[in-house]
UniProtKB/TrEMBL annotation, chain B:
Assigned protein family: Belongs to the MurCDEF family. MurT subfamily.
Listed EC numbers: 6.3.5.13
InterPro entries linked: Lipid_II_synth_MurT, Mur-like_cat_sf, Mur_ligase_cen, MurT_C
Keyword vocabulary terms for this entry: ATP-binding, Cell shape, Cell wall biogenesis/degradation, Ligase, Metal-binding, Nucleotide-binding, Peptidoglycan synthesis, Zinc
Protein name, entry field: Lipid II isoglutaminyl synthase (glutamine-hydrolyzing) subunit MurT
Amino acid sequence: MSSDPTNAGPHRPLKIVWIYPDLLSTYGDQGNTIVLERRAALRGIPTETVHLRSDEPVPPDGDVYLLGGGEDRPQILAAQRLRNDGGLHAAVQRGAVVFAVCAGYQILGHEFGGEEGQPLPGLGLLDIRSGRGEQRAVGEVVGDVATELNVPRITGFENHQGVTHIGPNAWPLARVVAGVGNGGGDGTEGAYSGRILGTYMHGPALVRNPGLADLLLRWAVGAELQPIDDSWAGRLREERLNAVLTSG
Amino acid sequence: MSDLPLRSQLAVALGRTAAKMSRLAGKGDGSVIGGKVGLKLDPELLTRLAKDRKLVLVSATNGKTTTTRLITSAMTPLGEVATNAFGANMPTGHVSALASAPGARYGVLECDEKYVPMVLRETGANVVALMNLSRDQMDRAAEIWLLAGKWRKALEASPQSHVIANCDDPLVTWGASTARSVTWVAAGQHWREDSWCCPECGGPLDRQDTDEDSDWRCRQCHFARPRPDWVLKGDQVTAPDGRMFPLTQLALPGRANKSNAVIALAVVAQFGVPPEQALPLLGEVRSVAGRYTTVEHENRHIRLLLSKNPAGWLEAFDVLEPAPGPVALSINAQGPDGRDTSWLWDVDYRILRGRPVWVTGERRVDLAARLEAAEVPFTIVDDIEQAVMAVPPGKLDVIANYTAFQNIRTRYGRVV
């Protein structure tokens, strides 16, 4: 969390911007900022985290932007404000990393479903379209990540009624092994394009997926990272994968 | 009771039999199954049982059971009070509570937040107490903004109901503000992460950021904190007539229970019980369904605290013995707990630094990962007994979520 340049070592502080915790933070979303800060710190990379309220302008100079989950109304408000603000678009053009979960994932796309399921315009930063499905998907989700990303199998908890279709300019984050994911019938979960990555694993999705956290950090610092012990997060990951994959 | 239609009387009788059999089989107090049988035979049973009684509904994310108990205690001067004292807070539990007290002219019913509209419609309750709304068990509970919107519609359609609402919680205020008559209570709000935005227009809320002053208003629209009729400040309650009462007689610990108590005072005042009469009765409540109970085991004095969500943890931390007093945490993720442990990341555990921390429960590894990230040293154990025996004789505070709490309670004696 130090922003003191004398402690910065070989790196300037990595700037993490948590977008709109007043709107997009329903259930443990803060965990993603904590995991990124911690895994950077263990490698001697200082970080500076901004908890950005929705009445503040989006700083365009962030390295990693995080968007969490939210109810229908806050999701709509967040999309409107981010479209009007333009700061996130500027950051993406600069090559910033974006990681979004659930409602945040949906608003990165061209459109998403509103309170009555009506299509509403998203940010158009990721080539996906989302709408409302018939049933709510609630439960553990496991997926095998696209080989290009070099990230081990992901594990998380999903809780959404969204259905997301991936366009030609984005790629599935993972193939679903257990759970629902994007729910469009193609067996995919999440999507990515460039350094923008979204998932239906909600809340603190990076906690159980240190490999995914490290992918974001690698993108942000532009270099390979030294390996670290995943410790309790690693054990949690193993425990959850075992619990889900052996329960039938 | 005797003027119930025959079918309803039968429904009540069979419900009671089912409840009794359930109790004999050792499956809890039987109030859910009893109510289920009754409602099956007579779907309008709740309406019939509520008729000609003065009813209070009590709802919130946190503090429902405790406040129901406090109100019930303070209403004893009025005569017999029917109540669902053990947290069976859906219509099945309400039917059982009312059916088992046929002569009671008053009823105090804890009500699950989602069921407020339905129970209000069926009972036409005279008083509705609404205290707080915050994130809770997202895999099964409703989203809270949506929930408050449903309260608004239900209260608009129930003009005879008087509402007692905590105006320090913006979402509760919004949920209550369609009621025809409201008593606003400044009962405090410590968990604020779910109320930074105006529930009316989505604009930013400007808030006083102290425990002493909870004023708030929207920067963009007219929505603002109503002028409170009752005010809680520290240990002091100011009544609508300006008289002040200390809450020092309260036996239940912590600021959350002071909030619950001031709501209870406002509710019973509505029925003519003045604060000076109610306060000693609130003081008689020492534990609620095992919460705040101290059990003795091998010279350890184990105090049991229930916390089910981030706002609840904040209140549990508020009543802990000062550091370096040891604490044991137990987390499960069964149905009633919510199967999703993401909320652990909304709790700021750093406050536990500087004391021995023991971690157990079915999801202890989730908690271990959380505490490690918060740089809180801890010891993980397979069950609570290992933690209890590892601390020296003396005090141990235990914070657990729902089924973890019930397990510990069963193990060390069900003191109510």
